[in-house]
Structure formats: structure tokens, C-alpha cells
Amino acid sequence: RELGWEGDEETHRAASRKLTAAHVVETKMTYNETSSTAVAARATAERAKMALEDNDERNLQLRLTMAATRLQAGFRALKARKYVSEERDEAARLAWISYYVENGQLDKAMELGWDENESIEGRRGSEDSSELPIQPMAVACWSVRPGREAELRTILRQVTNSLRKDTPA
Fold it and tell me: What PROSITE patterns does the database record attribute to this sequence (predicted)?
């Protein structure tokens, strides 16, 4: 009526009976906002809100599965990096052993695990070092003199890269 409603008194009372006070308070609407469109919009908003909340609960298992997958991928990557680093460490250790043996520093070679009865090539297993672009023995035999560090780093980087290519994924 305040906004110019011209309906008769009987229609007003019938409409008032249909709208209980609890409904009006619950939906936080005034009488003039309780048209069927406003009520439908409010109900749709409530359903959408509930759907979003329910969706979060339904997707909890999916989120947990995704988190577990990410953890597994992280552990696999860590294990792969550890494998690669162990392979590099072993290759470097063998290169140093061969260097020490060729230079007659047998005590240092023994510190790294060399046995006098064991050959360096036998420890490398079935690896064919002739396929590498630079022979590991050549790198191991280099003596590091001042001014040659950069050249040695370049060669070691090339050997490391060639070993990475041979490492299984």
C-alpha cells in the first residue's frame, strides 16, 4: 500500500495469511519484496549457496587424491634425483681412483674404496666408455694447474651431460 498498491482489503488479508512472519524474517524481505520473482530469486541463491557448500564436501575426496598424487610425484622426482646424483658420485669416485692409481697415489685411491686386486675398468661394469664424447679416463688424468680450471670444468660438464643422457628416467 505504501508503494501504491490498489488491491482490495480481502486480497491483502489473504496474501498476509500466506506469508508468515517467520518466512518474512527468514528471507529478510519486506512485504513489497515478496513477489514470486523475488522469492524465486532468493530460493535460487540459497540453492546455489548450498550447492557450492555441498560441492566442497563432495570434492574433498578429489582434492585429497590430487594432493596424494602431487606427493607421490614429488617423492618419485626426489628418488630420481637421488639416483642420478648417486650415479654421478660413483662416476666421479671412479675417475678419481683411476687418477690416483695412474699417478701412484695408491693410499688416496684406497681411501676412495680401491682394492689393489681390482681393476678400475672392472668396477665400471659393462659400460662402454668409448661411446662417450670425452673419455672419463682422459679427464681423470688431467692435473689441475693454475689457469686450466675453466677448461677442466667445461670437460667435466660435457661428461656429466653425456652421463645424464644415459640415465634412465
Answer: IQ
